[in-house]
Amino acid sequence: MSFLELHGLATGYERGQPTVKDLDLQVEKGELISLLGPSGCGKTTTMRTIAGLLALQAGKVMLDGADISHMPAHKRNMGLVFQSYALFPHLDVFDNVAFGLRLRKLPELELRRRVAAVLEAVGLTGLEQRLPAQMSGGQQQRVALARAVVIEPKLLLLDEPLSNLDAKLRVQMRSELRRIQRELGVTMLYVTHDQEEALALSDRIVVMNSGKIEQLDVPEAVFNRPSNRFVAHFMGFENLFRYRGGRLWSETERNLSFPGPVPPGTASVGWRVDKVRVGEGPLDGTVQARGYLGDRVEYLIDSPLGAVKGLCDAADARWREGDRVSFSLPAEAAVFLRD
To answer: Residue 96's CB: how many other CB atoms inside 10 A?
Structure first.
């Protein structure tokens, strides 16, 4: 039996219908699972239902062998970290972190020991007397995390906890999150819409769309072997074309023969932008747009197949809007999809 199990979960209503329906998921003890998908896909609804913040319409939630489907949220022994952190502005770091332990009437000596241990784990030792307003966004995020884990929850739920941070701090904090999760051994469910964040953090990724699971797998498989067209597009295969009769077809019905063998049952073929070689190859088209990305330049090319997006080293990127440019779609870099 898995540590967390969702059986036929149905929850959240929109126009009279559940936004999440018939969802099954198993999470092992100590695992970090990301719920990944676009806005409105049902990932936050699923998390809030597990936490007991949304009513279950159908199905069952099992945690550590116990049925908690209709248990009140405050009795589920789960830690929650939200996008807004929700720190008490009038309490210092120590009292913010100790808040849940005081509600549980923990003896003062044990309370101080546990708060000190978790503050050390998140790198906030020495800042116990700081107020939230006196701290950076990254420090506030650590306080929220410490407050969630100090109660020693069976399950830690995080909903877009890094989205308010700048890009550099986000990268730093996701490494810290992974370290803390490993150090404490806590089972973690992490909601995000950021593919890179999910890839960097997760033991496994749940890709969701319209309230259902499109793919559940390790990060390497989700990135390199998407299960369908939706997952491929969401994970960065922007050049996606239908395949029939030995040819690639765009949405505008422009088509081109595919230069290589195709597995039986293939319905779509796709390439990541960084796999399309601009400036070399047998195909050509007209540059529609050019975007400077630092060490590389991104090109949008109007080709016989339709719009194709590719990259070129900035040092070699001499083409401007309206220029003709060659490119290639390497068969060895293609992903083949059944739907």
So the answer is: 25
What is the enclosing helix (H) or strand (E) of 103? helix 93-103
Which has the closest alpha carbon to 254: 217, 302, 213, 188?
302
| d(C-alpha 307, C-alpha 285), whole Å | 9
Residue 170: which residues within 8 A CB-CB, separation 6 or more?
162, 197
Global pTM reads 0.89
3-state SS class at 300: strand
> Closest Cα partner for 155 from 18, 59, 49?
49
Give the CATH number of domain 238-337. Answer: 2.40.50.140
286 in Cβ contact with 301 (< 8 Å):
yes
Any idea which residue has 């549980």 for tokens?
A: 104
Q: Where are the domains of the chain?
A: 4-230, 238-337
Task: Order the strands of the 56-63 sheet from edge to edge.
Answer: 17-27, 4-14, 56-63, 66-67
Cα separation, 184 vs 290, whole angstroms: 47
Side-chain half-sphere of 47: how many Cα atoms within 13 Å?
A: 26
Query: H or E element: which one contains 61?
Result: strand 56-63
Task: Give per-residue pLDDT as tens, 165-218.
Answer: 788 888 888 888 888 888 889 999 999 999 999 999 999 999 999 999 999 999
Give how far Cα 20 sits from Cα of 41, 144, 206, 232, Å: 8, 28, 14, 22
Q: State the Rg of the chain over Cα.
A: 24
User: From 3.40.50.10840, 3.30.70.20, 1.10.1200.10, 3.40.50.300, which CATH number describes the 4-230 domain?
Assistant: 3.40.50.300
